[in-house]
Amino acid sequence: MKKNARFFAALWTAKLAALGLKALRRNASYFPGRLALKICPDFMGRVDKPQRIVAVTGTDGKTTTCNLLGDILTDQGEKVLSNKLGSNIDAGIATSLALGASVSGKAKYKTAVFEIDERSSRKIYPYVQPDYLICTNLSRDSVGRNAHPEYIFNFINSAVPKKTKLILNGDDMISCRLAPGNEHEYYSIARMPSDRTKSDNLFNDAALCPVCHAPLVYDYVRNHHIGHAHCPSCGFESPKAKYTADVDLEKGTMKLAGQNFDLKTDTIYFAYDELAACALLLEAGYSADAISRSLKKIHIVESRYLQKTVAGKTVIGSISKGKNPEACSSVFNAVRSEKGTKEVLLMLDDKFDQKNSVENICWQFDADYQFLADPSIEKVAVVGPRCLDVKLALLLGGVSPDKIVTSFDTQKGPDLLPLKAEKIYFLYDNYYYPAPARSLYDRIIKRVEEKEASK
Description:
By secondary structure, the protein is an alpha/beta fold. The protein has helices spanning 5-23, 31-39, 43-46, 62-75, 90-99, 121-124, 143-146, 149-157, 268-283, 288-295, 325-337, 387-396, 434-453, and strands at residues 52-57, 80-82, 111-115, 132-135, 165-169, 184-189, 217-223, 226-230, 243-248, 253-256, 259-262, 305-310, 313-319, 342-347, 377-383, 404-407, 423-428.
């Protein structure tokens, strides 16, 4: 598309809006792009794009995978355009493209890494056509917005450009079927000792064969429908992966393409994010040794994962997406799988005073709160406006009533735990609680230190 007067008006308005927001110390992730699209609806098609575009989509893991990709590429000496701190819908991508272009609309970057909201696919891909697209997974998400994984599958599937090469999770029986006419490569984690032959989650969104609708047989499963399966009726099965990793969570290592990689955390879902980033970079021609060396310098963004050892106790803060039962279940499963005694503080619920607050709390009863009934978990504290709803879900999951304490006041969270266990977990929703999350984590650390000092 040619650049016209409307395009330049949109571009310069977006740049001026971003400067104004920066002066006010406000985040310029969404509003400048929104203005640009109001003035020039096809702005993203007219602005020059970087030579190589990598997109990441999926229910969970988008942000972490994008951050890893951006950090590794930066360490490799590349200047990367991204929406790392911004919105992943069309207006956010428009903002990034506007700020990544000169006043004449020429691209200032050779490489872009964009996180793409699944439902925004149809608005973005007609104008921004990725060279590579990672889909981390597709699973049950917020019911009010995303309905069902197959519904979101169709959003992405109908929009992926034909030129785009997909890097897909071969262990996800839903997203592995995206864009069958495109070029594909798959990544997978080899069978682990902790894998099961039958899911113990409350739901499995890939219980039936997508071809003939007969029941799938899982050769092994990790969470929900993540694993390897086949259909005895028609022969459909999990795809063979080019990038298969041997993961050892206890040792914190991942072996891939003959190279050992350091895992950033000891949880399986972060291992998948790291594997996705490595698979993409290997497919793009980067050496395994170079990727490994860059990974050693990188840390998971602290808004998503925190860990500190204080007075012999490990205090862990981990994001756990509200209104997303699969994400919460994965975190709960990781907690119960850890060795040692544990205490858990939950701050997950949907705040009543938020613009996007919902009254429908059905997702709470799809989450696997029964995992927190594990004997190694000695106390579960719940805070927030919906703490009693969460308490009910915990009770239905089999958690003993004498292990549960609640408070409507989020600030009281750190005071509800006895802090006697070897590991203290703080699980929070960073969307509804962006400000209190870090301060409460720091208060838990402080309380542990004070308790030790008083001995």
